[in-house]
Write a structure and sequence with these properties.
The complex is a heterodimer of chains A (539) and B (99).
Chain A lengths: L18 H5 L4 H29 L10 H36 L8 H24 L12 H5 L4 H28 L12 H33 L12 H35 L6 H14 L15 H29 L8 H23 L2 H7 L3 H31 L5 H28 L13 H31 L39 H9 L1
Chain B lengths: L7 H21 L7 H21 L7 H27 L9
Helix pairs in contact in B: 1-2
Classes of the chains: A mainly alpha (539), B mainly alpha (99).
The complex binds protoporphyrin IX containing FE and copper (II) ion (CU).
Amino acid sequence: MITAIAPPRENYLTHEYGIKSWLLTQDHKRIALLYLGAISFFFFLGGIFATIIRLELLTPPGDLVSSQTYNKLFSLHGIIMIFLFMIPSIPATLGNFLVPMMIGCKDLAFPKINLLSWYIFMAGGALILYAMLRGGVDTGWTFYVPFSTSYANTYVILTAVGIFIAGFSSILTGLNFIVTIHRMRAPGLTWFRLPLFIWSMYATSVIQVLGTPVIAVTLLLVAVERGFHIGIFDPALGGDPVLFQHLFWFYSHPAVYIMVLPGMGVISELVSVYSRKRVFGYKFVAFSSVAIAVLGFLVWGHHMFVSSQSVYASLIFSFLSFMVAVPSAIKVFNWTATLYKGSISYDTPMLYAFGFIGLFTIGGLTGTFLATLGFDVHVTDTYFVVAHFHYIMVGGTMMAYLGGLHYWWPKITGRMYHEGWAKLSALVVFLGFNLTFFPQFIMGYLGMPRRYHAYPPEFQVYHVLSTAGASVLAVGYLIPAIYFIWAMRYGQPAPDNPWGATGLEWQTSSPPPPENFEITPVVTQEAYDYSILEEMTVG
Amino acid sequence: MSEHIVTKKQYAHVFVILLILTLTTSWAAYFDLGKLNVVVALVIATIKASLVVLFFMHVYWQTKLTKLVVVSGVAWLALLLWLTLTDIVSRGWLPFPGK
Ligand code: HEM
Ligand SMILES: [Cu+2]
């Protein structure tokens, strides 16, 4: 299907100019770009901390930075990457841009709240940055007590309050999406005609709304105990330290699904478009998102197997953790089945999708290793765990985020990027990623603990491999940054539907007009109905 | 969305019930019921909170979907308490110190 390039129409980027038109915008597409700018900055900052960490670990002795500084480095790396990059990444950028477009409406249900959520996010981020400039924090992203409440002499309260504030932006985004998806679907767009990206954004939003308040309260309790010495968690003050871990992980395990579910939504879109087929077992994939959202709340105790949590509770949590692997596996099998007899093309977004499927599978499977009580006791707090969650968050979500950015870039900016460079960088990212994190599985299994800046010499070979991989990975991330920015100015103008995709967002111009659609679309087919598209091309 | 108009009289009724329940709480505090002390206080507090949510916050007159949202909030709190209690209650069941 070749669409002639229409004469430049008024679009959401050009219909208003000036800094004020951006900072006061209520257009979900512009707010998505505000978020994109902000989280790219935080990703870069988190990346700098990662670089220093990897440099320090190049040699066995702790010679580059002091142990105190090292503690701050991995804490800030984790806090910034998780709370200020990963959690908002796909929902606040691609989700913000696409939810109204995919369901055929003009904006989110509450445009002002959407803008507010960005400001709240920036306020939380600013506070965390301020804490960082004052001297940072050294508790790890997990803020375990009683260290964080009674012993750490860094800026714990400031950072915790920053995360507390940023959490509200996450809640508001989730709320906005839920209401929008319920009430603003285009005529004819029934629940089972929705793109799977919408289903996964919906499931993510439910977790955001139900889970985030708990981390907010928990961090507030940390601040209260630290500031006023009211005994909640510290046994010396009459509290229970394991209670903190329950409260923390009640949010933070579901939070890992806040990070990965949107990525799964992106992959469903990509796999379908580039195999020219409806996603195999659509309903199963849709409901597995909801199942993950619910079951994800029942497994948090698997982070506490060595915490003096009762063995009986550990047994229950171990069992439930195996259950949550089922819906994730359904997705992987169904994406693979979609490929079967599909007409597959290897455009850049699809390369990222392949990367996601493989790496997420490794991450998910090692998750079940960790959910096994006996094995976990051996590898808790080693690099095995670090490798596990990076396979999911960087190998999974980050791949999906990049794949999604490439896929929707023509729609968002109205320009094409350079396909050759894009393919090359997808390859570099994949190689760099595996070189960085695969050795971490091995050294973790052999006993290299996480969060130490000095280590016995026998682990050096793995650390050298990992640091080398990290350099390759950094190049892989820098190349897209360059050609994306280049493409914004000099890229070929994008047609309305460069990939020949179904989906409402492709039926409007690139970039879309301020109100998304000139006439409200009416939906008469299921999602991903490529038989129709074929007829149109042939006929 | 139909906005339900709540009369002043209805508000007054709920308010009086809340006052009575508050008095009940303080009255109950004069009896030592042992372990039941906390239970009684929490049951009364839960009834009061439900009244506020249902009538002052108008949930009683809202759509099923809104009610579902409210119920899930409570259900998730129950989940948090329940699975945390699987740990707290069963600590010390094994004959080893610390397990
Ligand atoms: C699907 C997305 C997933 C993500 C994003 C994810 C992320 C994480 C993160 C961030 C941690 C480390 C927390 C820390 O200590 O700092 C972790 C640990 C863990 N994960 Fe996952 N995980 C995922 C899936 C799974 C699955 C499917 C399972 C089990 C079925 C699992 C089991 C575990 C266990 C048991 C640990 C604790 C290991 C330990 O501390 O000894 N994870 N995961
Ligand atoms: Cu977990």
